[in-house]
Design brief:
About 2% of the residues have low confidence. The chain contains twelve helices and ten strands. The chain is 39% helix and 19% strand. Strands 5, 6, 7, 8, 9 and 10 form a six-stranded antiparallel beta sheet that branches. The protein has a four-stranded antiparallel beta sheet with strand order 1-4-2-3. It is α+β, with helices and mostly antiparallel strands.
């Protein structure tokens, strides 16, 4: 996904008249950055290293301005467990959850508590790694028998996992650009009960509705919750907040993404288009915000 976002952004920047130096992140990242000496780095990495503050920290070390949120906001947002605890403390509704690291299972006997957890959360349960993006490693446990395999899958992506109450409802996303919410996008899986990685990125597996067909008060509430989450986590320039709308009309926040995707199936570009902004204009605005934040030389 990162490569697809990067290629699309590279094309847009070239159309906007910028000199673009694509960098495929690897062991020679620092060397590539020093040789390129960019005026600004447009980050199109998702998930671990790109979205969790790692690359941002390195860019700050090299005094290279970059797009999107800073290190702390990336750390807060990418760690789903930390983000959910912060939301609870701030009074932002989020589905009930429990979180454990591998040590809890290997050395503290947390497996013995699974029955109590399952009783508290009820089935089905969503099991997910704490720090991955793009729905990677997320499993849907419909019964106690499904939980062990779901935990194994989640632990293969991260040393900390969370078990979260499943909200049966509508999957919504609010993208925010420069502190302003864009039209709500609804993701409607086609033939899949669960919106997994494949459903998210394979064209035809998910239908997207933007603006989502919602009552005005629900749209306003979704915008308000998303802005509160964006500010709580310290996000800057742009981000995307994912929410669920239950059958009873209750909104809960699942997570925030400090570097949302920019592929042809990604939600931020769709929301920007619904707001009357082309993809090139979106990329140009994101770049402009990074340059505005760059220290004067």
């Amino acid at each position: 996904m990162s490569l697809r976002s990067g290629a699309r952004v590279e094309d847009a920047l070239a159309r906007l008249g910028h000199d673009v130096v694509p960098i495929d992140v690897g062991l020679d990242l620092i060397q590539q950055l020093r040789e390129a000496a960019p005026e600004v780095a447009f980050i199109a990495m998702h998930g671990r290293d790109g979205e969790d503050g790692t690359v941002q920290e390195l860019l700050e070390l090299l005094d290279v301005p970059y797009t999107g949120s800073g290190v702390l906001a990336c750390v807060r947002s990418t760690d789903k467990v930390l983000a959910k605890h912060l939301m609870l403390e701030a009074g932002i509704p989020t589905p009930e959850f429990f979180a454990f690291n591998e040590t809890a299972f290997r050395e503290l006997g947390a497996a013995e508590a699974l029955g109590a957890i399952e009783e508290r959360l009820d089935f089905p349960i969503v099991v997910k790694p704490s720090s991955q993006g793009s729905a990677l490693g997320i499993k849907f446990a419909r019964s106690p028998a499904d939980v062990p395999a779901a935990l194994v899958a989640a632990f293969s992506y991260d040393s900390k996992v969370l078990l979260e109450r499943h909200v049966d409802g509508r999957d919504l996303a609010v993208s925010i650009l420069d502190g302003e919410p864009l039209p709500v996008v609804e993701a409607v899986p086609q033939g899949d009960e669960f919106y997994d990685f494949q459903a998210r990125y394979e064209i035809g597996r998910t239908a997207f509705v933007c603006p989502a067909d919602l009552a005005a008060e629900i749209t306003a509430q979704a915008h308000d919750l998303s802005l509160r989450t964006y500010r709580l986590l310290g996000c800057e320039a742009f981000a995307r907040v994912d929410l669920m709308l239950s059958a009873g009309g209750e909104l809960t926040v699942l997570e925030a993404n400090p570097i949302p995707g920019l592929t042809d199936t990604s939600l931020l570009p769709q929301a920007a288009e619904a707001a009357g902004m082309s993809f090139d204009e979106l990329v140009g605005r994101i770049l402009e915000l990074a340059l505005q934040r760059a220290p004067a030389t």
